[in-house]
Amino acid sequence: KMTLPLALVALISAFGSSFQYGYNVSVINSPAPYMQDFYNRTYLDRTGVPMDSGFQILLWSLTVSMFPLGGFFGSLMVWPMVNNCGRKGTLLINNLFSIAAAILMGTSELAKTFEVIILSRVVMGIFAGLASNVVPMFLGEMSPKNLRGAIGVVPQLFITIGILSAQIFGLNSILGNAKGKALAQDLSLGPTGWDFSQLMPRVLAAGWPVLLGLTGIPSLVQLLTLPFFPESPRYLLIQKGNEEQARRALQRLRGREDVDDEIQEMYQEDRSEKEEGQFSVLSLFTFRGLRWQLISIIVMMAGQQLSGVNGVFYYADKIFESAGVPSSSIQYVTVSIGAINVVMTLLAVFIVESLGRRILLLAGFLLCSASCAILTLALNLQTTVSWMSYLSIVCVIVYIIGHAIGPSPIPAVMITEMFLQSSRPAAFMVGGSVHWLSNFTVGLVFLYMEAGLGPYSFLIFCAICVATMLYIFFVVPETKNKTFMEINRIMAKRNKVEIQESKELKDSYPLGKQEEKKALSSSE
């Protein structure tokens, strides 16, 4: 059952870490013109000549793309950090990145420097790269098997809430504007000159630096609250060998005294892995017993990003514009798409345990591929057939629904489930790197694809969705309500590897290292 400590630790880690990943993905979309204007003014003040338009485009694409690049670097830090500092420790240390970047971005306008914004985007990316891998791992290791999927979708739910929050705060009427000067003048009056009834509207009017700096608040909350919650019991027992602490953590998370069955299952997992020791990324790639798991997460993570979700979000504004939505209202339409994204991910939390992972992934990719195909048609015909532009709006919405129920939330859950303790950090590092590199690639290539292929670029996304769907259909097993060991046995068959477990495990408590270790032999 769901207990309060488990629910709180899921909410705090998802709000403090995953939320900001989503927030920073979309935060610079609405204030872009004001920020570019600031880049221009700063350059003009320094050099006395206006900025060349090519240089401005370069600076802006750096501002946008440095975030996923930082995410890639953050993913590379996952393995060393979670093994040395623990899962909870990594999340706490990670907050320092975000708070530092938030302060730098929030003060960039006063300091008259745009380089700092670009640097902070890298730092925020590193934060998000760590967060997007460590939170699912941390929560997956803490959850009981019957709630693992639902709790595993919570980080993705908070990513979508983060995207939505940034879209709402970024509305021109709230913070997506350039009225920071008024605030700066007010602050220089000193406390006596303040009229507090006037202060709040002024803070809201301070515009984009505040919008960028808000990201530090969730980190602060997490830094102050997460220390009161337990570390991952699996990490404590299997990696630290501390049964006492692991048992206490489990009792708190499960809300009951008797946790023997779970402790025993961890020992069983520990035993079956003693031979291999901790996997590094290199040994993960060369180890036959994990071959299909590794291929599966690479395919799912690449499919998740290369299925064009960022392209659809990027294109959404243009699609609505061509459907005759007045440009003043487009912002609100974007917000409503963000809201659909949140609602559907919330739905996934509730159905992932009943329907299972596989169905959601297959259905999601099916919806995405169908809507990409029909979208291509609709965009091509909208000049000749009047109602086609409405069909393209429907396609965008169906696409977002499809992506939100499967491709977005499930792959991270599957990484937690398909790997055991010793290989999980390395697997997240691989999955995370694929995720961020694919994200970076789409961001870089999509503008050129769109310029060269126009609406046909969605056919490429359609093909990727279909390919990913077929792979999942033939290779990826259902993992709901199974222990990590049971999932491991299913995959061992696929890898044509035998798992031999010692008999004592079935009936007695393990006595520790001196007992016979598991032997893993390949049956060629």
Automatic annotation (TrEMBL):
Predominant place of localization: membrane
Region forming the signal peptide: 1-18
Any one of the GO BP annotations: D-glucose import
Gene3D superfamilies on file: MFS general substrate transporter like domains
Major facilitator superfamily (MFS) profile domain boundaries: 10-480
Membrane topology: Multi-pass membrane protein
GO cellular component: sarcolemma
Family indicated by similarity: Belongs to the major facilitator superfamily. Sugar transporter (TC 2.A.1.1) family. Glucose transporter subfamily.
Protein name (Swiss-Prot/TrEMBL): Solute carrier family 2, facilitated glucose transporter member 5
Organism annotation: Sylvietta virens
Gene name per UniProt: Slc2a5_1
